[in-house]
Write a structure and sequence with these properties.
By secondary structure, the protein is mainly α. It has 16 helices and four strands. The strands form two sheets. The protein has a two-stranded antiparallel sheet with strand order 1-4.
Length: 350
């Protein structure tokens, strides 16, 4: 079966990462969910909500705000621990522990590529922090509760519905449930690599990405880094990066630390040990660039490529330069993006 073949093709280190995600999901989500039960909750809402301390509810006063902060004190502390861990070691929560993003990624990995939508051609940073601003500023100004677009409740309610629980079934047929389930499927399960929701709409991921970038230059901070003298420009890492965080510049891989989730898959697939999870080099390496013989240089991924029709001919050849071709992948992605934006806007007012 295709699903089994896809699972067998996962690199060993990634299998360990998925094991961590499955264990974290089992401990945080139903029917086990023993971590929430330790604090008297049955899901990741309430006292464990990592977003509650900056959520705005219609009619909220400052007194109400501090009540919510106190009510979600454990979630606030957990969020602080996530950011502190990211500062030192990269995005361990997003890449190894987040049950929502991790399960969506694993589900997407099982599907055939023909069913997946490629979102990595879109301007991730602009969309992510544009929505982050909308989440923090525009939604409160419009009196919209951010809970209406919270993906941390969708999977627990989906599990409840699958087990026949009334609360889960009611949630999934509600307007809020349908919107969140649609976003989970569109930007998760059916997204290439399964992490489009994490890259575009997760407020925790947006804050975590900023901390990841801020800490990247600290001498003690571990990040995915490129040894330029070893990189052959083969493009394999850029093709396999689930976040689209690697770009090829002058045939050298460059990692965008704002988008990188420290998943290490680029490290696994690099045949030349040009990528590693390490601290910044303490001194400049003058080792000459190594050229790997018989290296297959893969084409630039569709989400990075600029396509042109034909060949650019010089005037002496009687030819004229042709303009850029229409990238139907980008057109389709733009249509999907507009659909997602429409769902978000409509869902916000439901």
């Amino acid at each position: 079966m295709q699903v089994i073949a896809n699972l067998k093709a996962i690199p060993k280190v990634q299998k360990f990462r998925y094991l961590m995600i499955v264990l974290a999901s089992a401990s945080m989500l139903g029917p086990l969910a023993f971590l929430p039960q330790l604090v008297g909750s049955d899901d990741l809402c309430g006292t464990l909500c990592m977003r509650r301390f900056y959520l705005y509810f219609p009619g909220m006063t400052w007194e109400d705000f501090f009540v919510h902060v106190n009510a979600a004190a454990i979630g606030v502390m957990a969020f602080g621990i996530i950011l502190l861990t990211t500062l030192f070691f990269g995005r361990m929560w997003c890449g190894y522990l987040c049950p929502v993003g991790g399960l969506a990624e694993l589900s997407s990995r099982m599907l055939n590529d023909r069913w997946k939508i490629e979102f990595r051609s879109l301007p991730q940073v602009q969309i992510r922090y544009g929505y982050f601003g909308f989440f923090l500023v525009a939604m409160p100004a419009l009196g919209i509760s951010a809970c209406s677009l919270c993906n941390f409740i969708t999977i627990p309610r989906l599990i409840e519905a699958m087990s026949g629980e009334y609360r889960g079934m009611v949630f999934l047929v509600s307007s809020v449930g349908l919107v969140n389930l649609g976003l989970l499927l569109l930007l998760g399960v059916f997204a290439s690599k399964g992490r489009a929701y994490c890259q575009f709409m997760c407020p925790i991921g947006a804050a975590d990405g900023l901390i990841n970038r801020i800490g990247a230059n600290l001498p003690f901070a571990h990040r995915i880094r490129v040894a330029k003298e070893r990189c052959t420009g083969c493009n394999i890492c850029a093709r396999d990066c689930m976040c689209g965080a690697i770009k090829m510049i002058d045939k050298i891989a460059v990692v965008d630390q704002v988008s990188c989730m420290s998943c290490h898959e680029c490290v696994d697939v690099c045949d030349w040990n040009a990528l590693a999870w390490t601290t910044p080099p303490r001194h400049k390496i003058n080792e000459p660039k190594r050229i790997k013989k018989n290296t297959e240089i893969l084409p630039t991924p569709d989400w990075q490529a600029v396509h042109f029709h034909g060949t650019k001919l010089g005037a002496e050849e009687g030819g004229t330069a042709k303009g850029p071709a229409v990238s139907w992948v980008s057109v389709f992605n733009a249509m999907v993006l507009l659909t997602v934006v429409s769902i978000v806007i409509v869902g916000s007012f439901l």
